[in-house]
Amino acid sequence: MRTIQRTLLRDAAAIAAAMVAVGASFGAIAIAYGLPVWVPFLMSTVVFAGGAQFLAVGLLAASPVAAVLAGLLLNARHLPFGMAIGSSMGTSWRERLIGSHLMTDEVVAFTLAEDDPVQRRRTYWLIGVTLFTSWNLGTALGVLLGTAVGDYETLGLDAAFPAALIALILPSLRDRPTRVVALTGAAVAVLATPVLPAGLPVLCALLGLLTLLRPRRAAA
Amino acid sequence: MMLAAIIVLGIGTYTMRLGGVLLRERIELSDNLQRLLPMAAAALLTALAATSTLMAGSGFAGVARPAGVAVGALLAWRKAPFVVVVVAAAATAALLRLAGIE
Lengths: 220, 102
Hints:
The structure holds two protein chains of two kinds. By secondary structure, chain A is mostly helical.
């Protein structure tokens, strides 16, 4: 148990460091796009969803409507995330109202990796609060540094984000049906990316669930 | 307009987050659905990882980023610590770009 806690704290520290770096890139990129200083701060607190925030920064100046639609499409995955997470954050209204705002890809992945309900709740809040804090701290740093850190591709941070996601998903992919569903869905999403508007391709990954129909029909 | 856009995006995102949690409470989910939901989450996360690895806008991301992610994924598969995975992925992509490989 103590080892599990130590592992969790170490993972939380690692992802916090990564979030500060990515958040700093976000803040700096927002400034580099010529957006007012309050924009990245407001997004990091009110929206608190990395992918949608980067997407919105790219679209906001040109078309706020497109930014909202694309951001909402990208964030629609939180609906099934929420249903999968359920009461992992706790069952009281206060816990669910506050806890829901902390829901991100990373929190969901960390939480679903735990089996024990007590450990799940602890993980959800520890990772959620850590990410919210480090993401906003990073945003503030990025805004301060302005365009100095703006070129996040030079630092390879664009590769850090998917690598972190992969590291988190791998345990759940050890289950074969889940792996088939996830990889099929990912392939659909990649193929759909050139032809569909931003956000939709990731939702198309749900089509991967159709692979489950095949063996069931064969059994019947 | 910008302020309104961010507020709407924030409220919409929060509604979907809370909505999922509450729907789960209101609706009695079948065992099949209980099994499907984590799979749906895994599919969405994997798709997000795959698209953000391979695609930049509607085109391919080039060599440096997928190579960096591949190094990270290999290390993750070999059960390297999370921070090693993340730093190795970023460092690989950064070094390739430094060498002029995009």
